[in-house]
Amino acid sequence: LAQAAAFGLSAAGRAGGGGAARPGGAHGGRRGRAPLAAGMAASSEQANGDATSSKSGYTYWKRDIDDAHVLPDNKPQKLEGEADKAEAPRTSSVGSSWNAAGTWEEKDMSVASRTELERIFTEQGFILLQGEGTEVCSCSASVSGDSQAYNIRGRPRLGFEFQVKLGWKGKFEGEEVSGDINIPELDSSDLDGFEIRPVAKGAGEASRKAAEALKKGARPAIKRAAEALSENMLKAK
Q: Do residues 191 and 228 touch, judged by C-beta distance below 8 A?
């Protein structure tokens, strides 16, 4: 601005005093200085405006003025409830730590589920059939097939399709009996529709009768074992 002012005054001096007199030269010099002064004043006002703008900020809420203390606090606030919920530890082996939102997640549980179901069937005193003078228990178990754990909207579920072979022994109507059971398809989606195929060992009549009774009599116990499997696996740490 100082350079522009000096240049304007110099130019005005040359126009007013140098060389031959021009018509209206004095008035022309004054007319030249008037726009220059107006421009300097406008520049000064703009500079003051910029200083005020930088002081008050770009938004209404960032004003540095006398009544700023009456404005509400607009600082970001931490949502404690949501943070606690996100950081809560997961207790199910189905859900991963990264899936805190509880969206769809699938996890292979085949080996662990087969091992657990075999353990349940061979637990001491796992009774397949019981009545007067009768108690038939599972004594061995072999499980094959697949199992998947699902986490759907935060609700864990266990799905499986197993083939199960059991050995059984005990007493039927007071006589010693033994045999095997084959379950070709134990499906978690239909625990009331699985087929039981018992076979008696030896040619004894009591074992044959026991095998026939196990076709229906062992169904509730096998269903309980499948339900215990789901409960145990979903509660596993």
A: no
